[in-house]
Amino acid sequence: MKYPSIKTAAAEKIAHNRLAGMHIDTTNLVQWKTTLDKNEDFVDVDPLLALGETLRLRVEATEPTPPSKDAVEGEFSVQLHAAVDELPIEVLDDPTFWAWVSLECFYDFVAWRENLSSEGGNKYYDGRNSSECVVVRMFHRARLVTPESDLATAIPRGTDFWRSHIIRVRTSTAPELSKALVEAQAQDRMMTNELRELAKRINRLWTNLSLQDYSIEEARALIDQERSELSESQD
User: Fold this and answer.
1) Which residue, among 131, 135, 196, has the nearest Cα to 168 in the 3D structure?
2) Does the predicted TM-score (pTM) go above 0.85?
3) What are the sequence ranges of the domains in the chain?
4) What is the pLDDT of residues 49-86, one digit of tens each?
């Protein structure tokens, strides 16, 4: 299967120029890679282009009173996931594909999401950076809670929660644990210090437990137990 990509150096060049307000022709910077199966079919990129345009219009239509940026990210993360879910894992694991998605489909949304108006925002388009690259973060945000898609938007102002306590850490390799932690935070929101301590406790458990194999029931029980023990230790 052939899919679009933008190499890291080219992505940095594109982002640098656009953020500086300069036009740059990306025609020769986009490359079409072929997956190892040598399938000559082309990825249908129209859904991604259309979603990017929908997001752009959504942002424009809500000015001068924009919606919650995190809420929009959560809502459209589900649609982004649906648009790419059937792609080969080889494509989804390729940072240069996500660079293409970021710069060719979601450039305006990313700039709005991160309040970018000048140089210095390259990391938000860098497909290698799973917690800072907006579209990669969106994909994982939906991937980890599908099919319970409401969980992607269940935590108001939850960007730091997703970035720091799910995507950046090993919890991201355990979908059921991720779901359980999102549910817990949505139902009974923990303050920063409590959440940080709970995350530390969970991180230590990886030494002796295969948390990626937990069922949702086991994961919920684990979260409840750790929160209870944490509360008792702080009394």
Assistant:
1) 131
2) yes
3) 2-168, 174-235
4) 999 999 988 878 766 666 788 889 998 999 999 999 99
